Amino acid sequence: MVGFGRPFIANPDLPNRIKNDYPLANHEPSTLFGGAEKGLLDYPEYQAI
Fold first, then answer.
1. What's residue 37's pLDDT?
2. How many helices (H) and strands (E) does the chain have?
3. Residue 45 lies in a domain
4. Residue 11: which domain range?
């Protein structure tokens, strides 16, 4: 479960990305613990072009 923590922060749709083999977004380390207001809700879901 710990191994999925950081990927889930940058990819709120992580199960869908894994299921469909979509690329994973990189997380911004400054959003992990405290800091500014930016965080989980600021990362978009994957949009196929």
1. 63
2. 2, 0
3. no
4. 1-30
Type of residue numbered 30 = S
Q: What is the CA radius of gyration of the chain?
A: 11
* Joined tokens for residue 21: 């083999």
What total number of domains does the chain contain?
Answer: 1
Instruction: Yes or no: say if 35 and 25 are a contact pair by the CB < 8 Å rule.
Output: no
**pTM for this prediction:** 0.61
Q: Using one digit for the tens of pLDDT, what is the confidence trace for 1-49?
A: 667 777 887 888 889 989 999 998 887 777 666 666 665 566 677 776 6
8 A C-beta contact, residue 15 and residue 21: no
